[in-house]
């Protein structure tokens, strides 16, 4: 199940995670964000135990938005080892998103 992260839980849930984390920053009013939901749910299910998927409500969590300079939603951030490794802005189809995740984690030698 996709988790929800807040300004208060971002450090322990994302930065300190021993598993790579794909973070979607979005909003309930955003049609592309709603379109990403089933894609992210499938990725979370398929990569269970190897990749966590979480969402951040940008309207309710301004500190995360400011920290990462989010100007458009959805914005997807890939974290591993406490670092942001990649950023994707806008709706992204599942095959392309998985390719980005796999290639980025491979480049950074993160176990998948």
Give a structural overview:
It is a single chain. The protein is of the alpha/beta class. The chain has four helices and five strands. A five-stranded mixed sheet has the order 1-3-2-4-5, covered by helices on one side. Strand 2, helix 2 and strand 3 (52-57) form a beta-alpha-beta unit.
* Radius of gyration based on Cα positions: 13 Å
Distance between the termini: 19 Å
- In total, the number of strands is 5
Structural class: alpha/beta
**What series of H and E elements makes up the topology?**
EHEHEHEEH
The largest pleated sheet is described as:
5 strands, mixed
Query: Which range best describes the helical content: under 10%, 10-25%, 25-40%, 40-55%, 55-70% or over 70%?
Result: 25-40%
- Approximately what portion of the residues adopt beta-strand conformation? 15-25%
Mean pLDDT: 95
Shape: globular
Runs in which pLDDT lies below 50 for 5 or more consecutive residues are none
């Amino acid at each position: 199940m996709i988790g929800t992260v807040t300004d208060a839980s971002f450090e322990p849930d994302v930065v300190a995670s021993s598993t790579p984390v794909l973070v979607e920053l979005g909003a309930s009013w955003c049609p592309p964000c709603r379109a990403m939901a089933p894609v992210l749910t499938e990725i979370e299910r398929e990569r269970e135990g190897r990749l966590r998927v979480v969402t951040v409500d940008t309207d309710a969590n301004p500190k995360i938005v400011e920290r990462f300079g989010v100007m458009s939603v959805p914005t997807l951030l890939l974290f591993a080892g406490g670092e942001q490794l990649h950023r994707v802005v806008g709706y992204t189809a599942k095959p392309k998103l998985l390719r980005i995740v796999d290639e980025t984690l491979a480049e950074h030698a993160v176990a998948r």
